[in-house]
Amino acid sequence: MRVVLLRGSNEHGEGSSMPFGDRDEAGRRLAGRLAGYRTADAVVLGVPRGGVPVARRVAEALDAPLDVIVVRRLRVPDHPELGLGAVAEADVRIIDDEVVFRTGVGERDLAAAEERARAELAEQAARLRAARSRVDVAGRTAIVVDDGAATGTSTHAACRVAREQGASRVVLALPVAPPEALRRLAEVVDEIVCLETPLALPSIGEWYRDFDEVRDADVAALLGATPAPRTG
């Protein structure tokens, strides 16, 4: 497993607390470091919602098809700020056993949370892709792109989806993530390219001057603006 850390940062960003103007800039900077992945079999997969504007710039630079991997967080009942884990396409499921233990969430509540998340996931995937078919990643290099990873739970699930769908190589590309999250993510990918690695990352938005909400309609528009996916 190869990890390419293109700029190690301390907790304060080596004097720069806002290294990215917005997701578009982050995507351009990340794309500039991914030129070596411009191959005929490359597929770029954005993690909705915020990862898709970043992924769009990477896909353009690599002349690769763009698709999404839809992930939904599992929340503790009555405490939505706490994450139990995540579910994703391809029946991927990640549970944070420590949170389950600390909160006392039972199997029934966990199953109910997963059922709701699965229904929301299916609806969101349909909205985002509209009439487009999912890009087949089997036997190809899947470049999974997010706008950052604080804990890495959703990004971890997305990378597992790419693997489950048969990608021959899974490359994770991130503008920013702390070392601890990268260590966990290294378990499910072949390579990681990360621009900024602060020791702590309470919020991804802290590393962007403009971190406006990305809507499903914005993601669908970005996907609709890409050329028809290559299937071979």
From TrEMBL:
GO molecular function: glycosyltransferase activity
Listed name of the protein: Phosphoribosyltransferase
Pfam families referenced in this protein's UniProt entry, alphabetically: Pribosyltran
Coiled-coil residue spans: none
Alphabetically ordered keywords of this record: Glycosyltransferase, Transferase
Species, as recorded: Saccharopolyspora rosea
Lineage, top ranks: Bacteria, Bacillati, Actinomycetota, Actinomycetes, Pseudonocardiales
Region Disordered, residue ranges: 1-24
UniProt cross-references to InterPro entries, sorted A to Z: PRTase-like, PRTase_dom
Keyword Cell membrane: no
Keyword Transferase: yes
Phosphoribosyltransferase domain: residues covered: 29-190
